[in-house]
Amino acid sequence: MRDLTARLPTSPGFWRSPLRGPRFTSVLGLVLLVGITVLFVTGLLSYAAYNPGLSPLNDKTPDKGLLGFYLFAWPTSPHWLYRLTQGVHVTLGITLVPVLLAKLWSVVPKLFTLPPVRSLAHGLERLSLLLLVGGALFEFATGVLNVQLDYVFPGSFYPLHFYGAWVFFAAFLTHAALKTPAAVRNVRHMRQQRERPAAEEELVSPRPDPATVSRRGALWFVGGGSLLLFGTTAGQSLGGPLRRTALLAPHGGADPGSGPNGFQINKTAAYAGIDARETDDGVWRLVVVGRTGTVRLSRHDLLQLPLHSAALPIACVEGWSTSDQWWRGVRLRDLARLVGHDGDPPDLLVESVQRHGAFRRAALRANQVADPDSLLALEVNGEDLSPDHGYPARVIVPAAPGVLNTKWVARMTFGDLR
């Protein structure tokens, strides 16, 4: 019976790796403490960038309640803001995967310790650990799948990831408050050659196998894995020649085409169900609705209005972005004046002719409409928009998530959207 007990995961002798120990897991924990905090903050900023308080169309988590306490009107300056915050969020999340897996491996014996609860404090620690491990696996798994497969959870990714993040981060803060002081002490004593006695630290095996690699070597291995993921992912956010280095990113490698319209896209005209007959110059009309009524404009009419140019990127929730492209079109605030909004322009509802995919309709805040670089774009890089980039007209707004830069625009309604 004693031999059988020793073979169970609840026995300290079951876990034989000599790498496990307080200092090894403390280094990984401190890296995650910083990294996950940055992930959480940039994730909240990404949610705010969608302006969910503006309109139900933009809000994919309508039951958020007090969790939306921090929401604010997303700014348009600097124009690369969303490109930066979401690029950091996605790239850092992928880079931390080896660290997270190594951390979970290092503490797995604690999940099987008996008795399950020794005191109230110990019970709280075990509960936080359970929520922490489950939340980490859930958040990282859903995030990576969404990045790699583009909305693998259609209609549900936003609430799943949003609510999961709050549960995970609450457990993370609780666990960090309990463990950070000890982790700091362990790291400070890393120069000592000997571990604590096994009786003092349940992570240390009482009967370790012979070492095949040092703990320092194991940390270098984990760090090397993170650097490899960073080097094969970050290029999709940086753009330019570095995009070719993003071998593990769905929007890495070479651009999908050449010429002025040869940069990255999220969904094609075919995927969105665009009928070329609807966007033909002789048929398509832009409907603009505002205070003084309705105006219908052909593409030729739009080209007769004052045109302006702006260098802006496209940045998407999956973490990829383009470098700045030169867009040319009519300012949104000038279109607002056509329908009676002569002063500060109001909020704007934009509707597309697309049939498939999310955000067929999207709302923009007044500050986004008022920005001089916010355009109804007709051209890009000196050439007419291609069908995949939104011909005959698309919205482009500084610092906005890509899905709010509506393509194949059919109708624009200025006014209070609440």
Automatic annotation (TrEMBL):
Entry-linked InterPro entries: Mopterin_OxRdtase_euk, OxRdtase_Mopterin-bd_dom, OxRdtase_Mopterin-bd_sf
Signal peptide: none
CDD domains: SO_family_Moco
Transmembrane segments: 27-50, 87-108, 129-148, 160-178
Transmembrane helix recorded as keyword: yes
Domain of life, source organism: Bacteria
Entry protein name: Oxidoreductase molybdopterin-binding domain-containing protein
Cited Pfam families: Oxidored_molyb
SUPFAM superfamilies (alphabetical): Oxidoreductase molybdopterin-binding domain
Keyword terms of this UniProt record: Membrane, Transmembrane, Transmembrane helix
Span of domain Oxidoreductase molybdopterin-binding: 280-415
GO molecular function, one term: oxidoreductase activity
Organism, as annotated: Streptomyces apricus
